[in-house]
Write a structure and sequence with these properties.
alpha+beta, Molybdenum Cofactor Biosythetic Enzyme, Chain A, Molybdopterin biosynthesis moea protein, domain 2, Molybdopterin biosynthesis moeA protein, domain 3, 4 domains, six-stranded mixed beta sheet, 8 helices, elongated, binds adenosine monophosphate, binds magnesium ion
Amino acid sequence: MRDKPAKLIDDCFIHDKDRLRHEEALAILMERLVPIVEPETISLANANNRVLAKSIIAPRNIPAFDNSAVDGYAYAASDFENTGGFFPLTARIAAGDTDKIEVPANTAARIFTGAKMPLGTDTVAMQEDCESHEQDGTGFIAIPPGLRLGANCRLSGEDVAAGSQVAGSGEVLLPQDLAAIASTGIADISVFKRLRIACVSTGNELLRPGETFQDGRVYDSNHFMISSLLERTGAKVTDLGIHPDSAEAINKALNDATTDHDVIVTTGGASKGEEDHLIDALDTLGKRHVWQLAIKPGRPMSFGQIGNTVIFVLPGNPVAAFVCFLLYVMPSLTRLSGAGWQTPRRFPIPAGFEIPSKKPDRREFLRGILEMDEQGKPILKKFQRDGSGLISGLREADGLIEVHEEVTKISTGDMLNFIPFSEFGLI
Ligand code: AMP
Ligand code: MG
């Protein structure tokens, strides 16, 4: 395991293509991005959603001892024939009892769920199936025939064997992982530090909600969308506010942000118009690795670095910013954070709509709505309108429909790739 964070390759990489294809852009991101955060030790109580930096190995068997899976009676299966299933009770053992209890041959023990199997027993009969009796002050139990050896008994190590891996380095810790680590008794674990990410909105037109509306101005939707997407990835997010469309202001904001951030995500001003300054800022301050993608929406998206700080420059249109975030920023962040690259799964589902003509040579991501047809089979609808400023389309959609470069039209019934938003943890 590394103790020092890795540095990104800081050469000048600029492709010579007009527009990069989706897969080419992903390949560049995958190749250039490495985990850039160092490990730290934290308490398991604070580990939800963190990225494990050092694998957890079971120090002992889990469960650590053979124990009963039910409330009932423990006995040795080989004694059944001798006793005819009629056993005197010679012990009682409940969950948490630590005494070493031995049960003599041809006798049984009262036992409860989770209690250690007493020595001399290997099988448990459920209390519901047994009949208890008393004879001369001694308790007896009648156990029904037909129980196999080891019935209702949980064996030591049947969940995890001593020395085997409970959770691996690079795993994002979900509640079930925390349960597994807790079952080892380990209280402090090594995780990767959270990425420190700055979120920057750019555009003269932007206002923050709460500010008085003026004709010609627009409220900053992107900040709330992008910063909450970032928070869901487990990052520590800094709101750097709104910056005007000025080269000076943007250069300063980006330069300042590099001192204490691993990643900067900007929205707006990403094209090459007179009022767009992000690309020039990136070229002046650092290196640009990707600009202009053969995709829709999101064509002006770019990616680069200033020293060891990674920058994602997203388009201003909210739909484009959202789609680019899910497709490019999210997997990049999981890789930078130590969790590895994660490719969202595509599910083939027939189209319940038509597109008579689509431009070839670019990949399109439509807002997809999952519906059921009359037979209860899933079909895909698309959000009716195409505009990449329509936030209502993002709200109505269940995921993205991916339409490949070579496709030039879609007919009803064509099989499409559907990427549910749940693939990005948005549920
Ligand atoms: P731009 O990428 O700067 O050319 O902006 C494209 C469109 O997105 C324009 O209509 C902007 O007003 C809009 N836009 C840019 N930034 C934001 C934002 N933070 N929130 C909402 N809309 C935005
Ligand atoms: Mg703008």
